[in-house]
Amino acid sequence: MKPGNMALSALIVILLTSMVWVNTELRTVYNQIDLTDKLRNYLSIDTDEYSILKISGSNGYPIEIHQSDRQEMRVLRSRLSQIEHKIHGDTLIIHFSGARVSPSSLVNTATPPGIMISSTALSEIILEDTHNRVSGFDQSSLHLNLRGSSYTELSDNRIGSFSVQAMGSSSFEFQNKSSADTALFRLKGGSVGFLEGLSYHVIEPIMEDSSLVVLSKNALQELMHTQ
Amino acid sequence: MSLTSIRLLISRQFKEQMRVYLIAMALLIGLLAFMFLLIHNWRDSFSGAVENGVFLIGLFLSGGLFTNSMFREFSNNSEGIWLLNIPATSMEKVVSAVLLSTVIFLAVYLSIFFLVDTLYLNLTGQANAKGFFDMFTNGFHEFILLYLIFNGLILLGRVSFVKHSFLKSMVVIIAGFVVLNTLNNFSLEYMIPDLSVTSSMPLSSFQFRQSGENIHVQLPAATQAMVSPFLWTLTPLFLWGITWLKIKEKEI
């Protein structure tokens, strides 16, 4: 056999042997997955305590943030390499990189969440360029700071003093019933707020630039009545 | 191995082919601009990392054709004998071809891509909102390392096949990838009973179906750190080495 063909055969043998060895390692990882767990497709990541959440990055996969009796962060196994996180003071800073998709395709997307964050209580959530679902918060106050082209769906929240600051081309939408004693909205740039799913006692909207608020007929009448 | 010989071999290539290279560069600019025009016109249909797609199509298409132009003399007997008689060792000839088709090609390709991408983003008013192309997120730079393996395979095909070497090399590369992937899936399904592999990447990860859900299994970071240097460094070195052996066989 010629030296070139011998070397080529050796490379093929090395590649195939490595492939089998790597597959035995992958089998070990597979055996650690609890297939009966409904969150089997997610890996848990440990973090220190925090009260402010700051997330930036891409909108390809939704990020779920909800209140729970314990603090936990889970990441979709296939997206693990795309998340960077660190604690700075009492702020958990997350960068979730990846592909960006058209904002019009985010509504009712069937894409599974890329990150699921459970938190006992949060004072502020800062979201930039990501697709977010904030739900289940029942606390005295919460400040939501939306930047870039972030799109945030809000559902089933009961907040005493709920303030939302939206900038850039960010948008937020109250879907299932959320309530607030006092709702403060400050919208700038080209931001848009859909307030149909929110009930409130007091509302204070401040709107600048070309920002928009979208209301249903009932919500508009309720707002006029409140004012 | 003499650095002077390598420099002279690269200079010879430029002197003989400069006109072709200038036309090819203009063609590459046109191809990239055309692809950017397409994704801009149908931007609602193309979502996700479309710039990355344009980058990869341009890289592998132009890189493959350029690499295949190395040692083109071997497709003709008399020119092949002339190339073998050039007063430089076969190692120097391989090193000069590798430098031209990797280091120099990548420098030119990246410059052209960033130029066209910058023009596209500025002309479509996306420069501020979107930011410029970043090839160091999500491991995208690994495609550059994959290009080195691709380069090794095309060079090896160039010296192995006398006629239609690019087409034959591409057929062998695609067939090789299909066979490797099939063997990989077979190996995984043999090792793990009742596993239904939906996709896999040899030496890296696989995905399987469980109760209607695709579950991704990735190598642990420590193991990946062991495999990656072998895959990205030794494989192209091995392929360039085999190319050198094949040229030496021609000398004999």
Decide which structural class fits the backbone of chain A. alpha/beta
- Write the H/E string of chain A, N to C: HEEEEEEEEEEEEEEEEEH
Order of strands, widest sheet of chain A? 1-4-7-3-9-11-13-15-17
- Give me the number of helical elements of chain A: 2
Largest sheet of chain A: 9 strands, mixed
Helix content percent band of chain A: 10-25%
Question: How does the overall form of chain A come out from the CA principal axes?
Answer: elongated
CATH topology of the largest domain in chain A: Pectate Lyase C-like
Helix count from the secondary structure assignment of chain B:
8
Largest interface: A-B, 39 and 47 residues
Mean pLDDT of chain B: 89
Distance between the termini of chain B: 19 Å
Q: Identify the CATH architecture of the largest domain in chain A.
A: 3 Solenoid
CA radius of gyration of chain B: 21 Å
The domain tally of chain B reads 1
Shape of chain B: globular
What does this structure look like?
The complex is a heterodimer of chains A (227) and B (252). Chain A has 227 residues and is of the alpha/beta class. Chain A folds into 2 domains: 1-32; 42-226, Pectate Lyase C-like, CATH 2.160.20.120. Chain A has helices at residues 3-31, 217-226; strands at 42-45, 52-57, 63-67, 72-76, 83-88, 91-96, 115-119, 124-128, 131-135, 138-147, 151-155, 158-166, 171-174, 178-187, 192-194, 198-207, 212-214. Chain A has a 9-stranded mixed β-sheet, with no helix packed on it. In chain A, strands 5-6-2-8-10-12-14-16 form an 8-stranded mixed β-sheet. In chain A, strand 5 and strand 6 form a beta hairpin. Chain A is elongated and about 90 Å long. Chain B has 252 residues and is mainly alpha-helical. Chain B has one domain. Helix content of chain B is 72%, strand content 7%. In chain B, helix 1 (3-41) packs antiparallel against helix 2, helix 1 runs parallel beside helix 4 (90-123) and helix 6 (142-160) runs parallel beside helix 8. Chain B is globular. The two termini of chain B are 19 Å apart. The model of chain B has no long low-confidence stretch (mean pLDDT 89). Classes of the chains: A alpha/beta (227), B mainly alpha (252). The A-B interface holds A 2-4, 7-8, 11, 15-16, 18-20, 22-27, 29-30, 33, 35, 40-41, 60, 76-78, 80-82, 97-102, 104-105, 149 and B 43-44, 47-49, 129-130, 137-139, 156, 180, 183-184, 187-188, 191-192, 195, 202-208, 210, 213-220, 223, 227, 230, 235, 238-239, 241-242, 245-246, 248-249.
